[in-house]
Amino acid sequence: MTAVTGYAPGEVAQRTGLSLDTLRYYEREGLVGPVGRSAGGQRRYDEDDVAWIGIVTCLRDAGLGIADLRRFTELLRAEAGADDRVAFLRRRRTELLDQVERIRAAIDVLDGKIAHYATEP
Amino acid sequence: MTAVTGYAPGEVAQRTGLSLDTLRYYEREGLVGPVGRSAGGQRRYDEDDVAWIGIVTCLRDAGLGIADLRRFTELLRAEAGADDRVAFLRRRRTELLDQVERIRAAIDVLDGKIAHYATEP
DNA sequence: CTGCAACCTGGAGCGCGCTCCAGGTCAAGC
DNA sequence: GCTTGACCTGGAGCGCGCTCCAGGTTGCAG
């Protein structure tokens, strides 16, 4: 009689753009969940799970590795150690800013070549 | 009587920050060279080689893949096809800008978490 | 009750970008 | 000439981040 609650794996895959395999992989690696299960043992994701997967995906897309994201997940779960937590977050932030700088440098290189070939065919 | 000209592999490794193995790997993959050889078959890099390796390294650091860089190298060598060339360069440029956007989004996520934990320990 | 799609697990496989190794050659100083 | 260190080649190995597969279970629709 209880309404079936949460999202089935296929639904989550569709909403997040991840594959079922990746969703399971992230869970194994501790980036997500543990996700709730139905009586029969099938996964049911709740709103929080889906929102968290969105955050993880965003950080993955920016280039953070699985190990970083595991640590991120663990730190945000832990009660204590807010200092560690903030220090970790700031370090990642700095790394991302550095990466933006590297990309800017590369764009400058490309612009140089584009200018060269666009004006002198 | 001819002075020994160019740079030995070890020297180039030091100047570029790449390993000897990576230098050879890039050459095999067509990202660099072919590099000149001494009478005895050992590599001698000239200024242009070193400069080009710098460009390749810059683009690698920004996240371009080996296949992209091979294509980049081939296109800049080819005489014809300036249109292809510029189109290719612009495409990579756009991809890099997209990546900057993804990183910005990730930084926003981190900032949100930092703000949260910095104010509420 | 049956059928079928969606799901489960454990484990193998893959593409990328190096990195390491064995077994040899080259080159410069003594 | 000999030693020593830098270099050569071909090929195997590795860490990462998935992706695929076999063989089986679940669960909804008709």
TrEMBL record, chains A, B:
<dbReference type="InterPro" id="IPR009061">
    <property type="entry name" value="DNA-bd_dom_put_sf"/>
</dbReference>
<dbReference type="InterPro" id="IPR047057">
    <property type="entry name" value="MerR_fam"/>
</dbReference>
<protein>
    <submittedName>
        <fullName>MerR family transcriptional regulator</fullName>
    </submittedName>
</protein>
<dbReference type="GO" id="GO:0003677">
    <property type="term" value="F:DNA binding"/>
</dbReference>
<dbReference type="GO" id="GO:0003700">
    <property type="term" value="F:DNA-binding transcription factor activity"/>
</dbReference>
<keyword id="KW-0238">DNA-binding</keyword>
<dbReference type="InterPro" id="IPR000551">
    <property type="entry name" value="MerR-type_HTH_dom"/>
</dbReference>
<dbReference type="Pfam" id="PF13411">
    <property type="entry name" value="MerR_1"/>
</dbReference>
<feature type="domain" description="HTH merR-type">
    <location>
        <begin position="6"/>
        <end position="75"/>
    </location>
</feature>
